Amino acid sequence: MIKTEIETIPHESHPRLFWRFLRFGLLAWGGPVAQIAMIRQELVEEEKWITRERFNRVLAVYQVLPGPEAPEMCVYFGMLSRGRLGGLLAGGGFMLPGFGLMFGLSWFYVTFGLASPIFTAIFYGFKPAVAALILRAIHRIGQHALTDRWLWIIALGVGVAQWFGVHFVISLGLGGLAYALIKRQTPAQVGLFWPIGLSLPAHIAIALPSLLALFGYGLRAGLLTFGGAYTAIPILHHDAVEAGKWMTDAQFLDSLALSGILPAPFIIFSTFIGYLGGGPLGAVVITAGVFLPAFAFTLVGHQHIERLIENKTTHAFLDGITAGVVGLIAASTLGLLREAIPDLPAVVLFALALIALYRWKAKAAVAGVMLGAGVLGLLLFWL
Hints:
The protein has 2 domains: 91 residues, no CATH class; 279 residues, no CATH class. 78% of the residues lie in helices and 1% in strands. It contains 15 helices and 2 strands. It has a two-stranded antiparallel ribbon with strand order 1-2. A hairpin with a 4-residue loop joins strand 1 and strand 2. The longest helix has 44 residues. The chain is globular. The chain starts with a strand and ends with a helix.
């Protein structure tokens, strides 16, 4: 056993560690809040790997950094137990079930399509529910991200810039720098995040959807996923629908609908996008790009990242980007809403899904709402 002053971290065998986090992945319903609660219950409350205080501090670090928090926490716990290989096994085990399911669904979608009226009816119900899911996400992220008038202005400015066709890499970067200046910090101090998080992936993004380009799309989405996986929606929508044009809005909504019913981080919809852009290998490389930051921040040096988060300049820069992402999602959602809610029955499904998402607090609420919307779509078809 590896001992700390007040904690006991088990030195588990590699197969046992992998199986533990694979099981977490198989039960990963309900989004990041439910996923993190499940990990906390077993590893902190029951088995006492680390203290509650340490868990809260580590989670706070990952909430500020880009990337999905639940996989990052799995990598962190795996590294505590068995070093970097343990981190790889834990993070890989957690994401493997969702990736496998989405990969299989993507293959089915591409191979057989949705020609069946039954599938068409189910996805007719899914799409208004996805629109409700995104709208709720904008509200929830905005509540935490838009904490003063300057952040509201940045969000509005990025949204307007997106509407007029300004590349989001430029608008998000300017939003982050603007808020750093507003907070009377020196923008040079945040230079580390500009080339890593913004400029480098932008050069890859102008390429055709080769495997390298798909990896770049995923990497940029992973690096700019602040405040939850929903922030990757406008980024990947831009690459796949607006610029790349290898997907339609309807297909993009299908990817979100499938992701909403799987036990996986919501950002697993990127696997579907990669499959449509580059087949099986495309699905693999874009998923690798999306999840690379979640693994790298911990495996390369969590302690250094934790110290970096104490830098107020960095915090202000990231706050500005997060506010900009709220505006980016809102602007991108307008186009998706037209596709998702084409008629009056879809408006009713959208309203019912939105009410259910706000009132239903169960862990499986998202999956339940999505499946319920699919059932209602079938009923409308039969009627």
